[in-house]
Write a structure and sequence with these properties.
One of its GO terms (molecular function) is microfilament motor activity. This protein is an all-alpha fold. It contains 9 helices and 2 strands; from the N terminus they run H-H-H-H-H-H-E-E-H-H-H.
Length: 640
């Protein structure tokens, strides 16, 4: 049996060790699984982030592609450039035989076409630069995505190694990957394949964009070649002919030169007018911005006025509540005075009762002294067991002992009554001190009430003044709003006038150009600049009105600042009054507590005195009852 028990113990210890090892292995496996789950969660988050980034890049690619298409579309090429014209061999002769007016119009058309071509070239250059920048951005994004893909592939390799290690550790139980990890691996593989396909699509889109760029470059080169051909077109050859033709050609050349000079002068005048118009429009915009700012200031000031009026109304309500509190405080002081009067009457009644009790105690003391004398006489005659009429009476001895005890009790009652008298004197002194304190409190409250009433009257007068000032400021604000409306109308009128002046100037320029074409040609003369006094006068009036408005707004702001200072001072004074009232209410509550405690003490004294009176009456009526003596002794102890 002993051997079997030892074997069982060994087996048990081995099993426990095996269990401990299994538990440690289980804990390690659980920790590894938790780490793997955490890493899988992190990979999920990274994959989700990559998916969102790829989606955003795809959307941005689509947007950029659409934007580039729209940019590449841009302004359409002019139809005259797309038309394929065959060169005319007789075009030079036609030009020699044409009128100067048609030549002039032809030259103007050619200049406009050259300007359009220059604009197209600059636009195409901007488009090419933007496309190049977008290609650089896409290449940087692709590089970043490749870096992220490489990091993800490295993480996947690490996870594979860890999973292989876990698989090797799990071969004991002949179990492969857990189903959750296999599902996650398949999902990650699918994501990797999708990412690869998306990258291929992005590369294909980039190739398409490069092809479109090359096409655009070819188109731009063609346009540049066409422009060069147009610029390097052969000039019309002037054949040596009649002198009349030569003179006509010279006249035509002079006319063309004069027209160019006139056109340049008109252009300079137009540029001057445009600059003036832009200056005036900038001035008008600045004025409109100033007026809008002033309108906002006026709106802010109106809101401040409404807030201040609401604050003033709240202060008025608070002042009324303070006045009501003062009235309630007066009523409470009157009630306290009534309570004090009632306490005085009760004290008088108690003093009368104590005097009566003193008289009765003096009578009882006299009776006790007589009893003592009788007892001393009896002791001298025969002691405690002396014979009365020749017989010893034990009842008489008992009565004598009872009388002695009653005498001792009476002495104790006398001492207790003396202590009660001392307590009553102390209560009287406290009562007198409380009366003095109440008088001082009444005086202080009366003084404070008078000062508070004066201050309330002052605050009410200040509030009335503030209300009047707020009404005046509201009127001023309404006037300012009216002035702003008038200024807006004047601004609109000035804008209409400026537009009319500009339209008249353009009309005059067109009429002048038509007259120059019809009339005989003369050398260009500088035109006198038109006076802009008609447009500057309303603007000067607007400036003066704006300065007046600024002054009025500044004065209104100063008035508001003064009103704010006054309101702040009144609020500060109200807070001081509130603190004083709170202190007075606290003192009143303390006095109430003291008075209630005095009432309780007096009530307890009254009850104890009544009990003493009843017991004393009973003791005086029946001095032979020991129970009454004990009750009187207990009551005296309670009174103490």
């Amino acid at each position: 049996m002993k051997d079997e028990l030892a074997l069982m113990k060994q087996v048990k210890s081995e099993l426990e060790k095996a269990l401990k090892e299994m538990t440690t292995e289980r804990d390690n496996l659980q920790s590894n699984i938790e780490e793997q789950s955490k890493s899988i969660v992190e990979l999920k988050e990274k994959c989700a982030n990559l998916e969102t980034a790829v989606k955003e890049s795809k959307n941005s690619d689509k947007r950029s592609k659409n934007d580039m298409n729209s940019r590449l579309i841009g302004p359409a090429l002019p139809p005259w450039l797309l038309e394929e014209k065959k060169p005319d061999p007789n075009e030079i002769e036609k030009l020699n035989n044409t009128d100067p007016a048609t030549l002039r119009t032809r030259v103007i058309d050619l200049e406009g076409k050259v300007h359009e071509l220059k604009q197209l070239v600059t636009y195409r250059e901007d488009v090419i630069l933007r496309i190049y920048q977008e290609i650089q951005k896409k290449s940087s994004k692709l590089e970043a995505s490749e870096v992220e893909r490489s990091s993800l592939s490295a993480q996947v390799g690490i996870l594979k190694k860890e999973l292989n290690a876990l698989r090797g550790s799990g071969r004991r139980s002949e179990v492969g990957y857990p189903p959750e990890i296999e599902i996650e691996i398949e999902r990650l593989r699918g994501k990797r394949d999708r990412e690869y396909q998306r990258r291929k699509r992005a590369e294909a889109e980039m190739d398409e964009m490069e092809a479109e760029l090359n096409e655009m470059k070819e188109k731009v080169k063609k346009m540049e070649d066409e422009l060069a051909e147009i610029a390097n077109a052969p000039k019309p050859v002037i054949h040596a002919g009649d002198p009349v033709d030569k003179a006509r050609i010279a006249e035509l050349q002079t006319v063309v030169n004069q027209l160019r000079l006139d056109n340049e002068s008109k252009r300079s005048e137009l540029f001057d007018l445009r600059s003036r118009f832009e200056e005036k429009s900038a001035m008008l915009e600045s004025l409109s911005n100033d007026i809008k700012a002033k309108e906002r200031q006026v709106v802010d000031l109106t809101t401040e006025l409404t807030n201040k009026s609401s604050q003033l109304e709240q202060t008025i309500k608070e002042l009324e509540s303070v006045r009501l509190r003062a009235i309630r405080g007066g009523v409470e002081t009157e009630r306290w005075q009534m309570d004090l009067n009632s306490v005085r009457t009760s004290n008088r009644f108690l003093s009368q009762q104590t005097n009566e009790l003193r008289l009765r105690l003096t009578t009882t003391e006299e009776q006790l002294n007589e009893a003592r004398k009788n007892l001393s006489v009896l002791k001298n005659r025969g002691g405690e067991t002396s014979a009365l009429n020749g017989h010893t009476d034990p009842e008489l001895v008992k009565e004598v002992a009872e009388l002695k005890s009653q005498l001792g009790n009476a002495k104790e009652t006398i001492t207790n009554l003396e202590g009660a008298e001392s307590e009553l004197s102390e209560l009287k002194t406290k009562y007198d001190a409380l009366i003095v304190q109440l008088k001082s409190v009444k005086q202080n409250t009366s003084v404070n009430n008078s000062t508070d009433s004066e201050r309330l009257s002052q605050l009410l007068s200040d509030l009335k003044k503030e209300q009047e000032s707020s009404a005046a400021s509201a009127e001023r604000v309404s006037q300012l709003t009216k002035q702003l409306a008038e200024l807006e109308t004047t601004l609109s009128e000035t804008r209409q006038r400026l537009n009319g002046v500009m339209s008249e100037n353009r009309r005059n320029d067109l009429e002048h150009a038509a007259g120059c074409q019809d009339a005989p040609i003369s050398p260009p003369t500088k035109r006198a600049r038109r006076s802009t006094r008609s447009s500057s006068n309303p603007t000067s009036q607007d400036c003066t009105s704006c300065t007046e408005l600024k002054r009025q707004v500044d004065s209104l702001e100063s008035d508001l600042a003064e009103a704010n200072t006054k309101i702040e001072s009144s609020v500060f004074e109200l807070q001081e009054l509130r603190t004083k009232l709170i202190a007075a209410s606290e003192e009143a509550s303390k006095l109430r507590l003291e008075i209630t405690s005095l009432h309780e003490k007096l009530a307890a004294g009254n009850t104890s005195l009544k009990k003493l009176r009843h017991t004393a009456y009973a003791f005086l009526e029946d001095t032979s009852d020991p129970v009454l003596g004990e009750q009187l002794r207990q009551q005296l102890t309670t009174v103490e």
